[in-house]
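Dear U.,

For the methods section draft, I wanted the exact inputs and outputs in one place so we can describe them consistently. I've listed the two proteins in the order they'll appear in the manuscript figures. Please don't edit the token lines directly; just add comments below if something needs changing.

First protein:
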Amino acid sequence: MHKSWKFLPALGAFAVLLSVVPTRADEGMWTFDNVPLKQLQQKYHFTPSQQWLDHVRLSCARLNDGGSGSFVSPNGLLLTNHHVARGQLQKNSTREHDYIRDGFYAAGPDQEMKSPDLEVNVLVSLEDVTARVEAAVKSASGPAAAFAARQAAIAGIERDNEKSTGLRSDVVTLYQGGEYWLYRYKKYTDVRLVFAPEEQAAFFGGDPDNFTYPLYDLDMALFRVY
């Protein structure tokens, strides 16, 4: 079971900073390698330490079905949206148990619902590999050759790192190719559903746009990551 989580996670990398300060909306998204420390100090009188940033990063998780979540306990509880858990609820439903309609609750660990095809990734390290990728395309004779060389370089970096570290290794393209970063993820495949409310509570009002408007519903679910 995942034991390294000691702090409640941020609900989105830095949304927590904006939510606790009574001020006007201040939008922005930053990668963990380029946090605007000076701006945060000037505007909010807060400079996150590297330890704080590491805890935020390790508290955030990526689910392979397209969702994201946050660890909320030292025992591997992962908070996410109800619609992220919907696929697992559907796959485990039967004629007798409609978990979408009625919800699900595990009273104990032995009742947690296994999700055999669900994978959770936690970002454990980052490395700037821009120079390596750019070096591979310097001698390319044209756009097609450059594209092929770039893709080959990226695939090689990912393959070599996964072999040497055992971690899932993804090269991420940033700033439309201005930078390339290698993200290494610890992969968890023993993931079990602990709780999800009934659909009427989770989808009350029928508005799926939870990214733009506040919703008055219980759009949440809990998994446990082992």
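Second protein (the one for the lower panel):
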Amino acid sequence: MEKHIVAPLTDEEIRDLTVGDMVFLTGTIYTARDAAHKRMAQTLKEGGKLPFDLTGNVIYYMGPSPAREGKVIGAAGPTTAGRMDSYTPQLLDLGLKGMIGKGRRSKEVHEAIVRNGAVYFAAIGGAGALLSRCITSAEVIAYDDLGTEAIRRLTVKDFPAIVVIDSTGKDLYDEVKPLAQ
């Protein structure tokens, strides 16, 4: 089913999403990859404050290529989500409600998604140039020294993604696996 939702996400919107739904996301999302996740974990360990409020927000696992002249951002394709799995349960417990990436998630992330009523979306890998067209603004808000891995606040319009793990724990990869055998 096709659904249009707005970020930050509400619990009601998340509960309405089902594995396999095609979602078009509009609103504000944040980027963070490996190095940014590691730094956020260290900040939390030291009792510091994160660079943005996680409550209801979505993190897109992406590090863009440089923007071409006249463009907001360069290619903006997803990176492998599993690389953030050791950090993700803590962020979900602190209010993160959605993640966009590609690939499977660990058992611990899966459990944290269900525990917190969150959702994991997949974006199409290899389509970074097309996905960048859905990004209307991009601003580095933290960790500028990390270059492409800095945290960015993005404004997106009709950003396409597929629900891979819904708030009940259904996993699209498990649903399609029997078909591939």
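Candidate sentences for the figure legend, describing the second protein: The mean pLDDT is 94. The first strand starts at residue 2 and ends at 7.

Thanks,
Y.
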